[in-house]
Amino acid sequence: MPSPQPQKQVSGRLRRLAFLLIACTVFTVLAHELKYPASAWPSEREVLSGRSIFGKPGDTRSLVTVTLPYPLRPSWAPDTEITSITCHGLVAGSLINIFQKTLDHYGLERIRKLHLDVYGGCFNNRPVRGGSRPSLHAWGIAVDLDPLRNAMHMRAPEAAFSGPEYDAFWSIVEGEGAFSLGRELGYDWMHIQFVRP
């Protein structure tokens, strides 16, 4: 019968380092969850691969038309009102919630004053501006609002949506797990996406 091997002792220092590594990992995960509490959406890289839950760009079988809780004015025809938009079926509920919570918080008069009713587009099967890869709009998983006062390359404080009067709106958007490129990257304040940047 072989004699038992002596167990190696783990130094106190190594134990502390292992504990510190575990604590840092847990902290990082918790910090991400605090920043993105409702976001279970795939990353932009996953979506662009065509293998995410959103499928392929331009697939109209994935789209639904949703009725909005308040009318939007298209930026290209501001005297017109629309009461529905077309988006990917998987983001429809969150999108409706954003508009409903915005109405509940601001009321229609303030929404109009803040231009939260100026619509720039959702589903549009096109490439990104100045590029060849598909835009997230090609899946119907991004929405643009008030594009004239929040142009793609505008930064704070020039972009209207960067002002403090929009903080509640961005809390609503982020509470539904969506992302503001303005808040995430500092530009394209018109753009809301249901994809992790």
How would you explain this protein's 3D organization?
By secondary structure, the protein is α+β, with helices and mostly antiparallel strands. It has five helices and six strands; from the N terminus they run ααββαββαβαβ. The protein has helices at 12-35, 44-49, 92-114, 167-175, 181-185; strands at residues 63-74, 82-88, 118-121, 142-145, 179-180, 191-193. Strands 2-1-3-4-6-5 form a six-stranded mixed β-sheet. Helix 3 (92-114) runs antiparallel to helix 4 (167-175). The longest helix is centred in the N-terminal third of the chain and has 24 residues, at 12-35.
SSE blueprint and pairings:
Layout: H1 12-35, H2 44-49, E1 63-74, E2 82-88, H3 92-114, E3 118-121, E4 142-145, H4 167-175, E5 179-180, H5 181-185, E6 191-193
Parallel strand pairs: 1-3
Antiparallel strand pairs: 1-2, 3-4, 4-6, 5-6
Helix pairs in contact: 3-4
